Amino acid sequence: MTDTDPCPCGSGLPLADCCGPYHRGEPAPTPEALMRSRYSAFALGLTDYLLATWAPETRPASLPPDDATRWVGLEILDHEHAGDTGRVHFRATFREGRRWGVLEEVSRFRREAGRWRYVDGAPSVTRLKPGRNDPCPCGSGRKGKACCVRG
Ligand SMILES: [Zn+2]
Ligand SMILES: [Zn+2]
To answer: How much is the pTM?
Structure first.
């Protein structure tokens, strides 16, 4: 993945014009921007960034590498912020081998010293059973069998 590749968050922008600068230390201006950059960090395996943008009281001591999960799509359903707190409701599609799922969560965010951090959220995971002739769950617009749902 290079800076000119499309950002994993699905914005349609190159990584360098989207989440890339946040991964390099620029503060994300809104909870939504932080959420997108954290999703991209999950997709790219940037565990240091994930830990750095986690509120200290809920931050895990470490994040084990998760090579089995591939994050294939992000949909922001709703977002709002007022003062130094915010919320983002999102849906993230992932696959683990041939198993697909959707994680949906309303995440809470807090800003301290000019930086937004992820606080917590209650995730719910739904399994997907994409058909070979259904639109691919990755959001490519192609049929599953012509994209990620093979075999
Ligand atoms: Zn992005
Ligand atoms: Zn696909």
So the answer is: 0.91
